[in-house]
Amino acid sequence: MTTERTPQGAACPLSAAYPSDTTPYAHYARMDELLTLQHPLSSARTEPGFIIMSQVKELLFKLLHTEFSTARDQLADDLLDDALWTLRRAARVQQVLLVSWETFSVLSPVEFAEFRDVLGSASGFQSAGYRRLEFLLGNKNPAMAAPHRNTAGYEAVLGQLREPSLYDAALGLLARRGLLAPDDSTDRDVARPYRGGAEVEEAWRSVYRDPVRHRDLHLLAEALMDTADQFARWRYTHLVTVQRMLGAKAGTGGTEGVAWLARISEHRFFPELWSVRSTL
């Protein structure tokens, strides 16, 4: 039987708690509220799908934030097996996120133009959920918090900037395993990019050169690469999708569009895991 928690933490049958004007399923997942959150501003037949899939992506960002935060904390607690299992779940979510671009890519330029004007200054660049993911994975840039100032999501974005990243936790584990010199700078500003460079690359090289001895760390390295690989694919697919819909036009919200997306598509999370491959 489906159950929910009372304020005291005790389980109770959900069927005994839901309102009479809905179903246990709709009440549990707040489906009635969710399905009222789409408000097209034009008569274009394709605008509802654009809104819905934009909302789906935001929900997936939220789920990935939960999973990557969990994996980071597990690594910090030396629970590597648990972190690997969490990253396994996250990889499936990333696959769904990647496929979500397919629904946008089938919009013809004429179909998108039918409702593009009603977007006004709205742009995916303004997504607080995506910005928090960038910071959580280690791509820290304090300037990127500025667009969210004076919004409801600003404190969450700023808070994420000031938290250790998933890559910070992975490098901390390498240090505790003796593959990386401990970071003795107790006052390191975690809002700045993670510790990186030649010594980090050398630590990963040691893992890759002896995958039997460092079996669990080797699995971690490849799990992180899966994460970075999926994000690289997501960004590139975003670029191609925008090219297909807009060509070389400026992006929504005054962004550069394709030119800007082309630049960010070259970024890679966990760069030493990429560069070490040239030395093996």
UniProtKB/TrEMBL annotation:
It holds the Pfam family Trp_dioxygenase. Substrate binds at R116, T252. Binds 1 heme group per subunit. Its cofactor is heme. Pathway: Amino-acid degradation; L-tryptophan degradation via kynurenine pathway; L-kynurenine from L-tryptophan: step 1/2. SUPFAM superfamilies: Indolic compounds 2,3-dioxygenase-like. InterPro entries: Trp/Indoleamine_2_3_dOase-like, Trp_2_3_dOase. It catalyses: L-tryptophan + O2 = N-formyl-L-kynurenine. Transmembrane segments: none annotated. Its EC number is 1.13.11.11. Keywords: Dioxygenase, Heme, Iron, Metal-binding, Oxidoreductase, Tryptophan catabolism. Heme binds at H238. Belongs to the tryptophan 2,3-dioxygenase family. Heme-dependent dioxygenase that catalyzes the oxidative cleavage of the L-tryptophan (L-Trp) pyrrole ring and converts L-tryptophan to N-formyl-L-kynurenine. Catalyzes the oxidative cleavage of the indole moiety. PANTHER family: TRYPTOPHAN 2,3-DIOXYGENASE (PTHR10138:SF0). Homotetramer. HAMAP family: T23O. This is Tryptophan 2,3-dioxygenase. The gene is kynA.
